[in-house]
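Hey team,

Filing this mostly as a record. A colleague (T.K.) asked me to run one chain through the structure pipeline before their review meeting, and I want the input and output archived in the tracker in case anyone asks later how it was produced. No errors, nothing strange. Just documentation.

Input sequence:
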Amino acid sequence: MGFSGSGIMFAGLSSGIDTEAIISQLIALEALPIRRLQFEQAKLRVRLDATDQYKSLLETLRTASRDLNTSAAFKTIKTLSSDPAVATVFTTNSALPGIYELAVSRLAQAHKVATTAQTDATSALGLSGSFLVNGRAVTVDAGDSLTTVATKINSASAGVTASIIDGGSGNVFLTLTADDSGADNAIAISDVFDDTVLQSLGFVTGSASIRKAITNGAESIRFNDNVTAVGSLLNITVASGNIQINGTNIAIDFSSDSLTDIAANINASGSGASATVVTEEVGGTTQYKLQITGASTPTFTDTNNMLQSLGILQRAAGNELLAAQDAQFTLDSISLTSSSNSVTGVIPGATISLLKADVTTPETTTLTLSRDAGATRVKVEALATAYNAVLDFLDGAAAFDADSLVTGPLFGDSTVGVIQDRMFRALLDSPDGITGDYKNLLAIGIEFDSDGRMSVNASTFDLAVTTSLSNVTALFSELGTFVDDIGTPINDPTISFVSATSATKPSGLMGYLINITQLATQAAHTAGTAFTAASTQTETITFDGKLFGSSAYAITVDVGSTLDDLVNQINTDSKLKDLVVASQSVSNGLVLTSKVYGTPGDFTVVSSLAAGNDNSGIGDTVMSAIGLNVAGTFNGESATGRGQVLTGIQGNANTEGLSIMVTGGLTGDRGNLVYTTGAASVIEDALDVALDFVNGLVTTSSDSIQSRIDDIDDRITGLQDSLVRKEESLRRKFLVMEEAMARFQAQMAQMTALLNSISSTTASPMGF
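Output structure:
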């Protein structure tokens, strides 16, 4: 019988038959279907790997196509400065070619002032009091050292940098350097009321004079608003007092007077001076300044440093290291100034960096901006490289050897055939609606060898870009151009082409007639009742709706707030300032306007006060503000609006996915949109379809192969489980056979022994 122990099988001990060999051969025969499945699976894995490689190469090709499917790819400008030590120039794609003569007489520089020489940087100065730096208060204690004062100034975020220059004992200085260059950014410093810290340090000296002169008057520093008490804005405590303008006393109280109040006091004083509050946009934030003017420049007397605190007057710098200075230069003999040495806007789409100047003999250089055909060609060459890489891969992966009948893993794959055919047609076809001398890529130097591989003839291509940029652009990218009924381009900044999809069809030379039936509007709410002079109750105003996404947002309006306070609170709130604009209606009511056009900007406002309460900021308990989306049609086909963007609806025969932006203008016919698709846009669209994450041709092919591999895995697992059961059954049967033979052999042995015993007894004498 057989015996199995510790993984070793002893078989055929009774029968002498090699049962293990028999079982192995029987199982091997039963396993043939598994080996056939494993072979099929191995072929599928090779095909899946080839499909994934093909997909990766197509993704690279799509990226190269996408880089060319934009007009910006063809508007690259290269720049040259004949003397880069004088100035350099950087451009964006909106710049146009041109040659400019630049002469620089002054460079912009940041204002820099210093104290007089101090003993050291660490000893107590023995000074106490407050001073202002650009409207930011700094308070000094008697134990503060020069280093401590520098730290306090830097912590005030006043637009200056305080530093220490240590030249040894008795030769230590505290310097202030403006963060921004230019005359308008000169440092404004003043002691508060009768404090003398700045004077004691030697920052200021002499009598006060006008800090920033304007025509027949003077201008203050910038303030964050015009309705809050100036003392609060400056964060200083100052007693009330008088200023004199043209010899007339004017009472000012910083603890309660806002910039608007001070202007009103001056205008009512009979001094002959006129005061107004003007606004200025700085870094996207509205700033307020007080301007005081007269028939001629008024005279100012400031015994309490109040006009100095406002920045109308300022004492001279005791130790000015660098004067605040604008850059002065000419461009093609036109005199210009700039607060910065980085000059933008003078040449549209370009930034000039001024580096060297001379007042007596201005430093000169010639700035040349020209089309960079080479940079565009590099992008086209990248497309050729990516396209050729696909062909090189398919030479093996989709090949068929007629002699050996060996095929590549992608041979006969219909997906590959469809994709390759569409791409090759895109490279050879003449796009619909193209105007100009060049009708296809072959005409601008794109060449194909006998194997279909793509290359670029540099000289032919560069000439085409230089002489016919718009024509070349249209051969590659998708373009939307608005023209009138006779094909003349329309220059209308309020309507523009945005994008299209693979479902959008080229329009041909006549274009698609664009008809606008409704312009987009911003959701707005105007309070139904006037706001009283001062609120007598705390109010919570809650904002909600599409504009605010998934969560509402609330602000608290404090007791005593005026309408000006509420408007300022909303416009400076960290979240609201990016979503709505608050203003004041002619009837003294709050106006809220969404910054987003159309229904995406819809919002609601809810007040915690009862409806009709004059102290309610919104004038109603609940109010909805609804915007309108742009509406219209494309060549009679339906379109849907979202904000200012109008898009052709799904199912349109020609304009599905076509999108334009309408920011203004009139309703009615707005011209014809000529939409063309170049080679890069067609390839990109084709590959978008092929590589779509869910339904793409390559994606579904890959998924199908993987599904078959997984199915074979399941079948192999099932067959392997069946073989295990088959092997166990055979072992049990052979074991039963061995056991039966062992019993038979034992019985035979017993019978043989018995017969031998009988035979022996018969042969022996009987004892006589």
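Quick notes for T.K.: Confidence is low (pLDDT under 50) at residues 1-10. The CA atoms of residues 567 and 582 lie 5 Å apart.
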